[in-house]
Specification:
Rossmann fold, 5-stranded mixed β-sheet, Immunoglobulin-like, alpha/beta, binds beta-D-glucopyranose
Length: 761
């Protein structure tokens, strides 16, 4: 028996060393090929590989781009993005392969952010599922679809931590927490890249926007960022690093400055941190016109900023064409070395080899696979599940939810009968008219579609000009020109005839996302007036929120019986929402950003520092850290979300009250479903370092597990804590845990927890 075990072990070791050897051989083979190709290339051709123009299907800034085919032929294009459709992509690839001197294939990119044709909830929504397998699966499906339709490279995941809901781009990320953000980033990279980049159904991923983009001052997009290095390393860097650790192939530089230098030209960031400290070995692309934007940042003219970016460690210039038009001159003038250009070009060619583009430049153009993959029933079923798992139940008085499938529903709201806005922001590949509207979805899942009656009730906002701004990218909001009173009366009449009112309130798809920052994130007054009138009927009122960010909900809380945050649920929106409203799915989402009571509390986040004058006990206390006009509490804390059942936490136990340097402590807790339905719960593990040489947050998430419990069932959930979970960066940037006393918390949100103590020896 012992002999057999030894032989099995030897075989395993042999196989793993064979696969390591194969990988090493493949990479040295690629390096050889890249070097020999580089030897054949002129300086201009090398510079051409660093150029990533937009083909112009979508534009997020000012891009001038004529005569793409001519540039490709001349070897001036390394990749293209914003080009859609196999025919078009094949045509440009053919020019590159057959008509340029060296026949180097293009790398075709696209913003595949939360799905391709099948659209999943916006990333912020998806993060609320706390379900890493599901998140990975959503990226996998996006990769399967996009890679069949011509795309090789996606500009995702976006992992910018943000603690400011005014910033519109919180919709694209995973919220405020570094640990959770890191888990999501890694899951997405695994989903896109799989374990074989050369497979025809995987995509090269791109973690963005490196770095700190989510910390723009006042939540205004593209604004300045100024942050201590300690905060960068401890709070904002971890998700990017997690993506790098997961093997992400590319990184996108952010628009903002970092420590006084724009990220795109920041050598400390791109070379010291990213490559030297983290060991990143892929390539870095600028974000859109990030290179030429450094002129406005005050870093010099186009030649200066292009040299700055390249020398900093940015290898590919998206859109600006600064590399293309100035680097040769900079080499001649000694501002950039040819070796730096060689190194940049080498990394881009390496990625193309890794993807297998040199073996088959047309590998991602597969009509047959596309016809099976795109928007398939199987993929849509996963999107429906992901959407329902992401929804967060914020309030449910008197068990207003779930609704009986025979109930007469008055379905009211500016986007209740709208397809275009269901997919949310950054869904450039979606066929938006194929999404299931809320009206359609509820009718389909109900037992009697005639029981569902719809009225718009109000416009999104009173201001028609503002509504026009947020109807961008074809996402029409169908403004109604009738007087407000008439629309409200119609809705109230329907409400009077119904058993329950379902009011769909909140934002439009493009009220969040890029360049969609807001200073007022409360529910617009006209929607509040509608809600009050509906509540005035005496019927139960269920509010469903569509939003790409945390909203300020104080005005609507008293006028609703239940509130369900549905985000922008994706292509299966109406069906997924109906699943939750009718109780076929028990909501289990938990917030990944703190909800403020008002805008003045921003930035507000659970893992704040204690200060020297923390408020303990009653608000208000003079000379303590608090406001005169509002308590310190959030409206809803990080990690919060209700269920149609209730969970009880008991018996928090630690396997020991001391942790040695290389040991572990097991933390167990009993979680019971004490309600009447099966439900899922996200069990959250937090810690606090009580004494250290730098101040530490009052709570930090270090683990979580999503479990399912039947009614009456109890499960023991186990976590293990080791020294690395307690480590943090110090003033000298060393990373280790400090011995001393710690608190450990386990619970259903960042506020509702059981707690215990241990000591790190
Ligand atoms: C955005 C990026 C995006 C890029 C390419 C930029 O404006 O900031 O997130 O990937 O455009 O479309």
């Amino acid at each position: 028996m012992k002999y057999l075990l030894l032989r099995v072990l030897a075989l395993i070791l042999l196989l793993s060393s064979c696969s390591k050897n194969q990988k090493n051989n493949a990479s040295s083979d690629i390096n050889r090929k890249v070097d020999s190709l580089l030897n054949e290339m002129t300086l201009q051709e090398k510079i051409g590989q660093l150029n990533l123009p937009s083909a112009g299907d979508v534009s997020t800034g000012i891009s001038t781009n004529a005569g793409i085919a001519k540039s490709i032929k001349e070897g001036k294009v390394g990749g293209l993005f914003n080009i859609t459709g196999i025919d078009k992509i094949r045509a440009v690839q053919k020019v590159a392969v057959e008509e340029s001197r060296l026949g180097i294939p293009l790398i075709i990119a696209k913003d595949v952010i939360h799905g391709y044709k099948t659209t999943f909830p916006i990333p912020f929504g998806l993060s609320a599922s706390w379900d890493m397998e599901l998140i990975q699966q959503s990226a996998r499906i996006a990769a399967e679809e996009a890679s069949s339709d011509g795309i090789a490279w996606t500009f995702s995941p976006m992992t910018d931590i943000s603690r400011d809901p005014r910033w519109g781009r919180v919709s694209e990320g995973g919220g405020e927490d570094p640990y959770l953000g890191g888990q999501i980033a890694a899951a997405m990279v695994r989903g896109y890249q799989g374990d074989d980049l050369s497979a025809e159904n995987t995509l090269l991923a791109c973690v963005k926007h490196f770095a700190l983009y989510g910390a723009s001052e006042a939540g205004r997009d593209y604004n300045t960022v100024d942050m201590s290095r300690l905060r960068m390393y401890n709070d904002y860097f971890p998700p990017y690093k997690a993506a790098v650790d997961a093997g992400v192939g590319t990184v996108m530089a952010s628009f903002n400055e970092v420590d006084g230098v724009p990220a795109t030209g920041n050598k400390w960031l791109m070379t010291k941190v990213l490559r030297e400290e983290w060991g990143f070995d892929g390539f870095v692309v600028s974000d859109y016109t990030g290179v030429s934007e450094m002129i406005a940042h005050g870093m010099g003219d186009l030649q200066d900023v292009s040299a700055l970016a390249l020398n900093a460690g940015v290898e590919m210039d998206m859109v600006s064409e600064g590399f293309l038009t100035t680097l040769k001159k900079s080499v001649e003038e000694g501002k950039v070395s040819e070796e730096t250009i060689n190194n940049a070009c080498r990394l881009i060619l390496k990625a193309k080899y890794q993807l297998g583009l040199f073996d088959d430049p047309y590998k991602y153009m597969d009509e047959e696979r596309a016809s099976k993959e795109l928007f398939s029933d199987e993929n849509r079923a996963v999107a429906r599940k992901a959407a329902s798992e992401s929804m967060v139940l914020l309030k449910n008085d008197g068990e207003a939810l779930p609704v009986n499938k025979n109930a007469k529903i008055a379905l009211i709201g500016p986007l209740a009968n709208n397809k275009e806005n269901m997919v949310g922001t950054w869904s450039v590949s979606a066929d938006i008219m194929k999404s299931v509207s809320i009206y359609e979805g509820i009718k389909e899942v109900s037992e009697n579609p005639d029981n569902i009656q719809y009225a718009k009730g109000s416009n999104l906002v009173e201001d028609a000009d503002l509504e026009e701004l947020i109807g961008m990218h074809g996402k029409n909001t169908y403004r109604d020109d009738r007087p407000e009173a008439e629309m409200i009366n119609e809705a109230v009449e329907l409400a009077n005839e119904s058993d329950v009112v379902v009011a769909i309130l909140g934002e439009a798809s493009e009220s969040s996302g890029e360049s969609s920052s807001r200073t007022d994130i409360s529910i617009p007054d006209n929607q509040v007036r509608l809600l009050k009138a509906l509540k005035g009927t005496g019927k139960k009122v269920v509010v469903v929120l569509l939003s790409g960010r945390p909203l300020v909900l104080g005005e609507i809380l008293p006028h609703s019986d239940a509130i369900l945050n549905a985000w922008f649920p994706g292509s299966e929106a109406g069906l997924a929402l109906a699943d939750v409203l009718y109780g076929d799915v028990n909501p289990s989402g938990k917030l990944t950003m703190t909800y403020p009571q008002n805008v003045g509390q921003i930035p507000i986040y659970y893992s704040h520092k204690n200060t020297g004058r923390p408020l303990e006990g009653e608000w208000f206390q003079k000379f303590k850290s608090n406001y005169l006009d509002v308590t310190n509490e959030p409206q809803f804390p990080f990690g919060f979300g209700l269920s149609y059942t209730q969970f009880k936490y008991d018996n928090l136990k630690l396997s020991s009250d001391s942790l040695s340097e290389d040991g572990t402590i097991n933390v167990t807790v009993e979680v019971s479903n004490i309600g009447e339905r099966t439900g899922k719960e996200v069990v959250q593990l937090y810690m606090r370092d009580l004494v250290a040489t730098i101040t530490r947050p009052v709570k930090e998430l270090i683990g979580f597990e999503k479990i399912e419990l039947k009614a009456g069932e109890t499960k023991t959930v186990e976590f293990s804590i080791s020294e690395k979970d307690l480590a943090f960066y110090h003033q000298d940037m060393s990373f280790y845990a400090e011995p001393g006393d710690f608190k450990v918390f386990v619970g259903s949100s960042s506020e509702k927890v059981l707690e215990s103590n241990f000591e790190l020896k």
